[in-house]
Amino acid sequence: MNNFERGAGQPEIININAEKKYQSVDGFGFALTGGSAQHLIRMSAPQRKKLLSELFGNGPDQVGISYLRVSIGASDLNEYVFSYDDLKAGETDAELKHFSLSQDEKDVVPVLKEILAISPKIKIMGSPWSAPVWMKSNQNVQGGRLMDKYYSTYANYFMKYIQAMKSHGIVIDAVTIQNEPFNDGNTPSMQFLAKEALLFIRDHLGPSFKRAGIKTKIVLYDHNCDAPEYPISILADREAASYIDGSGFHLYAGQTPAMGKVHDAFPNKNIYFTEMMAVSKDGGFNTAYPVGRILIGALRNWSKNVILWNLAADPKYNPHTDNGGCSICQGAVTIDGDKVQRNLAYYVIAHASKFIPFGSSRIESSLTTKVSNVAFLTPEGKRVLIVSNNSAEPQTIKVIEGGQSFSYTINKSSSTTHIW
């Protein structure tokens, strides 16, 4: 280890034990919303290639994003609402004869293909904001529930999506069955209560995937850290649990220890962090708060990944859907034609994505009172330590592993990543 600048005062001691391992890492990144893809596809080809290389490449000046979340159909950060099987009012299509990926083929698919050319092993998770309107109890893009008679049809809808993406060379590693199942205010949105999700997975989606040989992981919940009983109640059903890989969480409400609660109840099931915003205000770049609360908080509570919301928007936070789309959602990058501005979320994810590759394992690192931290062992045997100082003054840190140590001072409202 190197000796860094030593600060004054009693240091915060972080003890590292690489022998004690926790969860392995799948990756770090953002939601590639339809709006993000729209901005990217409208850039000139040279500037788009330059930006995508910076975001997804693994060179010295590149971020190394390794995980993406895409919407199955439109999210609220699309220009308008669509599904892959839209019909005229009163029509139905139980056999999904009109299923088409044509909307995504305009922007999301070609952008993903360019990303895969840079990062062929990137993980991709798909999440629906709503089923097609004709499958819903209220016949509306906003709210409502999936009608019982369409559970099998909707399971086939997921399969057709996975197969259609695969035909483009895009592998969907995991799906959540509903973005924010308690939220009926987004446009689009759909409620999916725990007892409904259990029946859908156990009796329809899980068996359909198994029969078709689909290896895409099924992830529960995909909502805030204030209702861990939702995934716990479903995982308690052994048959349903046999089809489920794990549970996904957001952080607009609740605290990350809720993720740890689910892990403790079902330690053989994985935990994923699937959405949260980290927003720059007035040009401010206090990385300490989001790195500590989101990144370190999720990883210390067993998450295999961290995905922030969302990759790109324009200077006015467009596009978004009307009457229920997010009008304040800043991208990790702001794209204005060929101009690019890097925002807070970009730097938060870079603290991990650039240094912690797929297959790394979280290792033991002791807690301190004034800073937060999380540590990893990479497949190459390197140690990576992320430290966040959200206090009002600089803090002296001493990192100890075995008989070696280094000390340094971390500025207030800042984060650091160390490798040795």
Automatic annotation (TrEMBL):
The UniProt family comment states:
Belongs to the glycosyl hydrolase 30 family.
Gene3D superfamilies the UniProt entry points to: Glycosidases, Golgi alpha-mannosidase II
Please list every transmembrane segment annotated in the UniProt record, as residue ranges: none
Q: Which residues form the Glycosyl hydrolase family 30 TIM-barrel domain?
A: 25-356
Question: Where does the record place the Glycosyl hydrolase family 30 beta sandwich domain?
Answer: 359-417
Species lineage, top-down?
Answer: Bacteria, Pseudomonadati, Bacteroidota, Sphingobacteriia, Sphingobacteriales
* Native source species: Pedobacter ginsengiterrae
* Official protein name in the record: Glucosylceramidase
The record's keywords, sorted A to Z, are: Glycosidase, Hydrolase, Signal
Checking InterPro entries in the record gives: GH (IPR017853), GH30_C (IPR033452), Glyco_hydro_30 (IPR001139), Glyco_hydro_30_TIM-barrel (IPR033453), Glyco_hydro_b (IPR013780)
